[in-house]
Each structure stands twice: as C-alpha cells, then as structure tokens.
Amino acid sequence: MLSRTADSLFWLARYTERAGNVARGLAVASRMAAISARLGDEVAEWRDLLTASGGDAGFYRKYEAPTAESVVHWLVFDPDNSSGILSCFEAARRNARAVRTALTVDMWEALNDSWNHLRNLSPDATEGENLADFLGWVRERVTLFNGAAHDTMLRNEPWRFVHLGTMLERADNTARLLDVKHQLFAPGEEGAVDYVQWQAVLRSVSALRSYQWIYRDRLSARRIAELMILRPELPRSLAACHAEVSDTLEAIAVEQGGRTGECHRIAGLLKAQLRYGRIEDIFAEGLHEYLTGMITRTAELGAAIDAFYIRH
Amino acid sequence: MSLSKPAAFDEMRAEDGVRRAYAEIERWLRATPREMLDRKRHEAELLFRRIGITFAVYGEGGDPERLIPFDIIPRIIPRSEWERLSGGLRQRVRALNAFLADVYGGQKILRAGKIPRALVLENDGYRKEMAGILPPGGVYTHISGIDMVRTGPDQFYVLEDNCRTPSGVSYMLENREAMLRLFPRLCARHRIAPVSRYPEELLETLKAVAPARAGADPTVVLLTPGPYNSAYYEHCFLADEMGVEVVEGADLCVQDQVVYMRTTAGPKRVDVIYRRIDDEFLDPEAFRPDSLVGVPGLMAAYRAGNVALANAPGGGIADDKAIYPYVPEMVRFYLGEEPLLANVPTWLCERADDRKYVLENLDKLVVKLAKGSGGYGMLIGPHASRAQREEFHARILARPADYIAQPTLALSTVPTVVEQGIAPRHVDLRPFVLSGREIRIVPGGLTRVALKDGSLVVNSSQGGGTKDTWVLEDEGPDSGPDQSQSQSQSASLGC
C-alpha cells in the first residue's frame, strides 16, 4: 500500500476516534458541572476537561477563563482547536477524501454524512438541553464509522492502519482522562464528591456497568485504575488498546515477510508491561508519573510507526 | 452554414412529430406528473451528494465542493447515428496520433507545407522535450475527448479535440448508474448500450502501452495533482474502478531513471502512469521548476523508456485551437481518407484576412481564446453587449494570435427539466476515445447541457449540467422484454 494512503487511513481513524472521545469528555464534564454547581466547583470540571484534551494552551490564548460556554465552543466549534469536534471530523474527512479508493462505501458515507450534517450545524445545537443530544449524536456517528470499518473492510493493510489509528488514539485518550483525575485516586478519605467523580470517569469510557460486572462491589479508586489500565476485558483499557496495537503491527509484519522495526519493539514492550503489570506497583510508582509516562510512550510509538511505514 | 440564427434542431421533436428514438421517452414524460419528476430530481441530487460526486471550485467563495446539475431526461442517439459518429471519431483520433508522431519525428506534414511551420513549432503546445521520443505503439493521445455538436438531423461537427487530460468520463458512468437506480423500468423499456466497461477498457489500453520489460502484469498508477483539483473525484473513481493506486507526485520517486512509488513495504516499481497532471507540472527538472505536484526525474525515466505516460506529454499541439482547422487536412495527409467528421469553420485572428472578417462580424461570431478552456474568456457575439464586443475588438487587435472565431452554431436541443417545466436546452457531446493497441469507444459519452434558457455554454464551470447519453441498440422502443422484472419493481418506483 502507498505510504501516503497508510498515513491518511491511520489519521482519519485517529481523528474520528478523537472526536468521539471529546464528545465523551464533554458529556461527562457537563454532567459533573451540573452536580458541582451545587457543590461550588463548576469551573474545575471544565478546566480538567481542557487539560485532558491537551489543547489548553491554545484555549487560554483565546479565552479568559474556562466556562461552560467557552469550553464547549472551543471543543466543538473553534477552528483554531485542531482537536475540536468539527476540526476532527473535517480532518478525518479530508484524509478520507485523499484516500477514497482505500475506503469502503459504508465508511465514506458514515464520514461524509457526518460532515454534511456538521458543516450546516446551527450554533444553538450545543446550547442548553441540546448539548446532550448533540454529543450523543457525535458518539453515534463515531460508532457507526467504527462499525462500518469493522464490518466492511477487507482484512488487509488498509484495515490494519485504520485499526492502529483507532487503538492508539483510544489508548492515549484513556490515559489522559485518568491522568487529569489522578488526584481522585490519591489515598485518603473518600467523600461524596469523589464518588460522583469516579462514576463520571467510568462513564466517560462507557465502563460504569462494566465495573459492576467485573468487580461486583462498591467503587474504589484502586479498582477503577486497575480496570482502566490493566484489565484486558475493558475495550478502552490501556492493556486492551496496546494489545491491539501490537498485534496489528505484528500482523502487518507477517504480511510483509517479517519486516519489523523500532515500532514493533515499543509496541510489544508496552503490551507485555500492561499484560503483566500490577496495580500495586503502579500506585507505588505514583499514578500520575505512570500515566504521564504512558502518554509519552504512546506518542513515541506513534512517531516510530510513522518513521517505519510512512516517512522512510 | 448560415450565420444568422436559425431555430435550433430539437433531438426529440422534429417538424413532423416526435423522432422515433424518443417515442418512449415522450410517452413517459407525458405520463409522469411534474411532482414525480421533481422528486426524482431531488433523489438524484441526494444520490450524487451522498456518493460525493462533486467537482471542486476553490477561490470563488461559496461551497467549494459543488454538484454538477444532473438532468433526468436522457439524451438519445440511435445506433445508426452512433455508428457514423464513432467511425468518424476513430478516424480523427488515428489522424491526431499520426500527427503527433510526425511533428515530434520526421515532420513530414510541415515539409509538405500542409500546415504552417511556425504555427506548430512556435506554439506553446509544442514540447521540444518530446522531439525524437516515440512512445510505445506510436500512441500519444491514449485518452481523447472529442467535443461534438449537432445542428440538424445529419449535421454533426467537431467543436474541439482534447488530447491532454480530458475529464468527465466519471459523469458518463455515474449518470448511467443514477438513471438505472432512479428509473429502472424506463431503462428496461429501452435497449441501451452499456457504458460500464469503460474502466476495464481504459486499464487494458494503459497496460497495452507498458514498457516491454514490465511483462504481463505491469504496475499502473493514476497520477493526480491532489484533492484540490477540480476533477479529483474522477481520479479516485477511475483508479478505484481499475483497481490501481491514485498517487500524488510526492508518492513517486525516480532512481537511476526508474520510477518507484513509496509503499508501506518499501519502494515499488511503476510501469505506466495515467497522469492527470498538466505537462508543465509533470517534472520540475524538465518543465516548470516551481511545480510542487510533479516528480523530479520523471521525463528522464520516460526518455529512457522505463515508464509509459498516458497521455504522452506534448499532446497539446494536436488539440490547439489554432491547429484545429488543419485536422481534416491531417486525415487526408496521413490516412489518405476523406474526413468523416466535419469541423466548424474557424477563423484564425492572426491571419490578416480572417481577422478583418472577424472584426467586421463580431455580432455574429463566437470568439474564443486559442489557449482557453472551460468556457472562460469567450465572446458570444449575438448575446454580447456593444461594450463587450468593443472590448474584444480591442483585445483581438492587441493580441491577434490569441484568438479564433467561429460562427454561432444553433446547437441542437434536448428536452430538459427546468423551473418552468420541460423545455428544450442546448447540448453537446464528449465521447471518449481510447487508443492502445487498438481504438475503442464506449457507446455514447458525456452530454453536457446549458441549463439557462438560450445559453450555448455547456461548461460545468459556467452553470452547465449533464445528462445520461443513451445509444439505443435499435430504433424505437422495444416493449417485449422484462415483463416480470417490471412487475416486481412497480411497487416502489411509480414511474
């Protein structure tokens, strides 16, 4: 496959996944803000969400302070935010358009219909009660795209690069979400607010029910961290995502007659560490330090994939 | 040919009634309520928007991805008429290829004095870089779009030849798909010559001109300037239909005069490039050094015979508007035949006699830029204001070689759905001629229609639309076949 095609497939999947993740984050933050408003720290929710989205420096160059309106605008509409929902769909579609022939019709239509809807989005689509509907719609569109890719693509290289993009982005997102809230996981008294926040964190990765199914017990900081980092059953856990990344890279290598490089080594190492890691050790190292390290290594892996397959 | 404006010939309605090939269409139009036509029009638009069949217009404001309006009433050409046309097209393209081989080779036609030397050798379309290069099979214009117009039952004219990178064939294919989806019963009541083999025939044509060393399964790619090109959709569509890669300049590299594409598994050798990039931008080392979309070293690889380019560089000399008047002479000179297709009479403003005539008759003529395309920079005398004519008068005097003029033809019309109902609108036809080891033409082509009342400009960039073009296997409708099929489909279609 053309290197440029691989690049576009990888990024269209990453941007699509990112749009869905921003929508998840926004949904949780607005829910939390509604609760925190009574408890007096609404701003913290929006500030945390900005940090998790990784674009807070750009935000503070344009806006005074994180409020519901400013953060929603930044994360949905603002063209200066390359990780905003509209920007992500725009970038995903631009990449899709550049590799139309590598996509199935279902994938193209999922992206193109989303884009045709978004480009005509009225500004009040995110106001008040509309916001939840809009965010739900974004998640549906991302799910539709992922389903279309999963159900219709031939299982050859184009599919593998799409899957790599989705999984790498998802791993990055889960690590960021958890890291922003790492203080919730510090040892100490568990108050009512913590509990609601924990629920919110789980909800953002669609894992509140999953937690109950796996642990059948009340929420605890340690288990939530374990679920989101180490449990292979949770499809958005770091362990699950990095296993997919590594397996996908290995599959590409097999199809190319065993060609491997630095990206295969990093991916394999991450997979093994997550497979055999223990939550006790992670907490002993420090959750924040551990997650920051994961975010860095995920970025290094992305760069290594790029160096090996794209810009060689 | 008369220079006054006669009533246009309508391809459906002759003076003595409806022409036979359109009988079924005429019945269908009478039987179909206006609301149904509007609904089908709307469905067609959704279909095209959904598939993403757009052409890109950047830098004009508004939506950069536009739909070319599609008219749901087909344009019909009976097989007998088509046979005459296609015979003429084959002949013309053979002559154009012979001309290209000659002007980049022995230049016999210049030595014989049939075409002025300077007109060819000093033309911007003439690429000195091509001198002495003989592409495989002597084919230069592998894909030719020959624009035809009609003024009467038997009066067809070639309006212009396109020997560089003619576009529009994806619309020919998608228009047929749209018609089959929107009006399966109407289609089933006609015996329409299929067009869907075009991509396969294009691929065979491209493979046939591969360098000999490439073997039986040469690697073919389509080279596009990228997503901002107005025909980008078509590039992707054709590549997809052929099962070849769409590459941009940056995806290709040349080492030791061999072209490779960059793939995830390393460099892969390329044998044939169907390029949709203009000559000037192909290779910054050979042509424009500022080209960002080209491939450095490509022409050296081409000269070494390591890669085929379709169309060959330098084809612009054959479709130049100042060379056009000489095409009938090429047919006689190279083939020893009388031309089967007529040219539109053309005055070259650089010739003093022609110029005098043109300047005296600006109100009757169409004046075009010799290098122009897309319907830009054109004067349609009878429709122009006095001020516009005066402006062209001055422009022609300032740069006479830049302009040609032709009579204002009463282009034929075909019924078209417009705001006020169904009305005749002027059309042209662009058949696509493939030249590899042999010449192939898919029956029909792209019919473009001027949607504005009275307008003669069919270009999509100027508000033109398209129609599906049906070459009917026999004259008149065939009511026999497909009874069971129409039964099963009737519930959902209602047409």
From TrEMBL, chain A:
It comes from the Bacteria. It holds the Pfam family Alpha-E. InterPro entries: ATP-dep_Glu-Cys_Ligase-2, DUF403. Residues 1-309 form the DUF403 domain. This is Alpha-E domain-containing protein. It comes from Roseicella aerolata.
